[in-house]
Design brief:
The chain is α/β, with parallel strands linked by helices and 367 residues long. Helices cover 42% and strands 19% of the residues.
């Protein structure tokens, strides 16, 4: 299961948001720095509004959503790459995740301590980004030294790595994350091998005050974040109120909807954050139904039909013959598999078919 690490400076609402997203109280949330020391882990169902109407067509009440894992990581401070604060632990933890959800504080509250003395989300982003880049520069220098010896012997892979590393060094030195370096397909493969921290995909969670959630797009802190990350980090952002989300945890779904409606908000920020993180990880969802259950399955975008079959069971991939496929939109619009067949929307696909998000599939295979 792929993991997304929730990171940020101390006291920005990371642990509160983690508890809300995971519907748990695993992470201590307190008004002092470094209340999180050891990482907290939580598996989260991915909200998908297509599951309930699919279950009606399948005439079943058993629904199994797909899931991802979130990790609440200790707060980072300037100097983390040199071991300041919990820096070494932070960097080790972030190395283990597949994507980063970077929480930045976008609210004023004199009762909540900010470790840097003022509210400036762009500065906070730069502090974390700088520490990741500095850690990556150290790793890149070590890799250059290692590859220089091999490159002298004419080793092709070492020469290719060295060329990329020498192009990457000035990019990192200019304060730009590794993930924003323009690369072609082969260089992208090598970059993944380097496992650099600043190459991980990032989503910025703008933690706003309760009263600002309905108008978050006009929040001056959020506006600054939006302008900065689009220009410098090639990343997305999403407004969320960790405090509101923590209050929703103890409510029933109907109570939560009424609570959000009173605030002028249509959807839970945590739900939007989970869906955005799922997309950030490069994942899509396909569905199966067998009359007993409707199930969502996680698939990497671009994977072919046999690989999708293998997500269900390795034997399905080994013996793959064909995939019977209909898009969820078509199935919901037409109301049944039979109607989808009559309309020509139910089709057979072979080995080269890349499943699309929302496909409903049945795999034929030879035992």
């Amino acid at each position: 299961m792929l993991k997304a690490g929730i990171v940020g400076l101390p006291n920005v609402g990371k642990s509160t948001l983690f508890n809300a997203v995971t519907h748990s109280r695993k992470a201590e949330a307190a008004n002092y720095p470094f209340c999180t020391i050891d990482p907290n882990f939580g598996v989260v169902n991915v909200p998908d509004e297509r599951l309930v109407p699919l279950s009606r067509i399948a005439k079943t009440t058993t629904i199994i959503p797909t899931a991802i894992e979130f990790v609440d990581i200790a707060g980072l401070v300037a100097g983390a790459s040199k071991g300041e604060g919990l820096g070494n632990q932070f960097l080790a933890s972030i190395r283990e995740v597949d994507a980063i959800v970077h929480v930045v504080r976008c609210f004023e509250d004199p009762d909540v301590i900010h470790t840097m003395g003022s509210i400036d989300p762009v500065r906070d982003i730069e502090v974390v980004a700088t520490e990741l880049i500095l850690s990556d520069l150290e790793a890149v220098h070590k890799r250059i030294e290692k590859n220089q010896k091999k490159a002298k012997g004419g080793e092709k892979e070492a020469l290719a790595e060295l060329a990329l590393l020498e192009r990457l060094t000035p990019h990192l030195n200019s304060g730009k994350p590794a993930g924003t370096l323009p690369v072609h397909e082969e260089e992208a493969r090598l970059l993944r091998l380097f496992q650099l921290l600043s190459a991980k995909p990032v989503l910025y969670a703008c933690n706003v005050a309760e009263g600002d959630l309905a108008t978050a797009a006009q929040n001056p802190f959020v506006v600054k974040v939006a302008e900065f990350v689009r220009a410098h980090h090639d990343a997305a952002f999403i407004p969320v109120s960790a405090r509101i989300e923590s209050e929703l945890v103890d409510l029933t779904p109907d109570e939560a909807r009424e609570f959000l409606k009173d605030l002028g908000v249509g959807d839970s920020g945590a739900s939007a954050l989970i869906r955005a993180t799922y997309a950030l990880l490069g994942l899509i969802t396909f569905f199966t139904e067998n009359g007993k259950e409707v199930r969502a399955w996680t698939l990497r975008k671009g994977w072919k039909a046999p690989q999708a079959a293998g997500v269900i069971h390795t034997d399905f991939e080994k013996g793959f013959i064909k995939a019977e496929v209909v898009s969820c939109d078509d199935l919901l619009r037409l109301g049944s598999i039979a109607a989808a067949r009559e309309a020509g929307k139910y089709r057979l696909e072979g080995r080269e078919y890349a499943l699309r998000d929302g496909d409903v599939a049945l795999f034929r295979f030879a035992p």
